Amino acid sequence: MLSVLANRTYRHLFAAQVLALVGTGLATVALGLLAWQIAGAGAGVVLGTALAIKMVAYVGLAPIAAALADRLPRRTMLVSLDIIRACVALALPFVSEVWQIYCLIFLMQAASAGFTPTFQATIPDVLPDEAQYTRALSLSRLAYDLESLLSPMLAAALLTIVSFPVLFGGTVIGFLASALLVVSVSIPSPKSTKPSSIWDRTTRGIRLYLATPRLRGLLALNIVVASASSMVIVNTVVMVKGRLQLAEPQVAIALAAFGGGSMGAALLLPRVLDHLPDRPPMLAGGAILTLGLLLGPLANSFLLLTILWAVLGFGFSLALTPTGRLLRRSAVPADRPTLFAAQFALSHACWLVTYPLAGQIGAQAGFDTAFLLLGALALCGLLLAAKLWRSDQTPTALDEAIPHEHPDLPADHPHLAAHGHGPLHRHPAVADDLH
Fold this sequence. Notes:
- The structure is a single chain.
- This protein is mostly helical.
- It has two domains: about 5-185, MFS general substrate transporter like domains (Growth Hormone, Chain: A); about 205-390, MFS general substrate transporter like domains (Growth Hormone, Chain: A), CATH 1.20.1250.20.
- Helix content is about 75%, strand content about 0%.
- It has helices at about 10-40, 45-70, 75-90, 100-125, 130-160, 165-185, 200-210, 215-245, 250-275, 280-295, 300-320, 325-330, 335-365, 365-390, 415-420, and strands at about 400-405, 425-430.
- This is Putative transporter, MFS family.
């Protein structure tokens, strides 16, 4: 897996991702403490609202940012967004009102809504070989999981010697270091040659996404992933401290079990995907998540809950990690930022629904009911994904080269030239202006 780091451009981009993730993790801890300082017992309401603001920014602004990215060099855009995030983190220690937190969080997450899909869309251009790209996806998944484990530990260590506002300084350093690493390499910036309006560019990713059969199935699978992960993210602390009457260390252990399961799948996937197409492992991951939710009421002890969380983490990574491969082969390079932005927005729209469901059902009807209802929602998503992918009758579900013609194109058209000059040519199916 580490062989992909031999590529200098990817190595710098991966290091930028890791440093930005560490900075974000420190900010998450510091933001909770800042909310407590300002709102006291109302800190949970503040953080819940901030999380909702984050989801709204992701869903609403990612497609717009992708449309603007089509007119800017990717490196310029990534560096600019890192600097914006650093400036927001620099301002956070000085806020004194709750509304100021909301405004700054919206600005930071708006920048992230532009940065993350643009960054994700850049990696397949840096690593065009699919085997290398698969390893990069698994390495990225490991980075996310390690951040979720290590950032709270780093924050706890720092808080023994400094006060919490200093953690925002670590966030600033992380984002600035990320910007320096991005600016240190040359990044491909494929451009669309067809003039289009800002509305067309904003909606293009969603239209391409929904026009592609393999991605309609992916959207259904996003519902499964969101249902299971929301139960973990929203209810772990309440289940451990409330129902099981345990303390903060057990909360950390339970969350670490979820991250550990996810890391296990990320380590396994490159070898699996060398021999299998993407969809069987993804559907298997969805099945694990669904079954785990439906069996959730049986997890009535800390040991069983920890095991269940590890299993859900494994299924989460199994279903989610190959997503980039599906997106990569579903668009030409110039359209990848808009398609990655569409996946970013649509997947977070699923979380925008399942986060409050997990919290409200757990609080009002109990955790067993929350497990079963979210499990039922996940089952619907899984069955829909399987049906959509099974009904896709093109060769290996659009993953192989398909012979076809373009009788309306001149013989010297660049698309025909790129695929053999003949009227009948073949390539993996993508949704673009010609197809």
